[in-house]
Amino acid sequence: MAAPTPTARGTIPSPRKRLKDGFKLLVTFARYPTIALWEISGKPPGMDGGGGIDINTMQDDAFRPKYPRAKITETDATLKCAYDPATEDDIENMINIPDTITYRWFDGSTKAFFGFLDKWEPDELVEGTMPTGVATIIASSWDHANEITAGPVVTSVAGS
After folding, report:
1. Ranges of each domain in the chain
2. How far apart are CA 131 and CA 140, in angstroms?
3. Across residues 78-100, what is the average pLDDT?
4. Is there a contact between 78 and 136 (Cβ–Cβ < 8 Å)?
5. pTM, whole model, 2 decimals?
6. What is the DSSP string of 85-139?
7. d(C-alpha 110, C-alpha 152), whole Å
8. CB–CB of 114/139 below 8 Å?
9. What is the third-level CATH fold of 25-47+66-155?
10. I want to staple 139 with a disulfide (CB 3.0 to 4.6 A). Which of 45, 73, 84, 88 is the partner?
């Protein structure tokens, strides 16, 4: 039986750099790039491998082995923002409509993906606070125009 062999950590290649501040992230819907939503915070879609496949048999004495799945699922994205109440009609016209959504970081790097606006939930209105709401965006990985599966496209700017 072979044992796992430790791997030494390498030096991260230049010109890679880590984000040092969460400010700022802008979100654009291709269907309506001028929608009256003002970003406060956001969570871009992530990636989920779907968990391991149990490949345990009676011949495995001490551990239950797992095997990785073949496909990746893009996770949901969210956007907390201030809004214009008149935007409700625009939001209604965007719910469940296939779109291209772009998350743009402060340095100009982008993540564009196929998806749709799944949910809009205004937060509780409280005197003395700015009205906000949360949009939930489903990353669909489905190009409706061409009827094919398509993952996100990340575009980095120099130094990122």
Report:
1. 25-47+66-155
2. 29
3. 95
4. yes
5. 0.86
6. GGGHHHHHHHBT--EEEEEEETTS-EEEEEEEEEEEEEPPP-TTS--EEEEEEEE
7. 10
8. yes
9. Elongation Factor Tu (Ef-tu); domain 3 (2.40.30)
10. 45
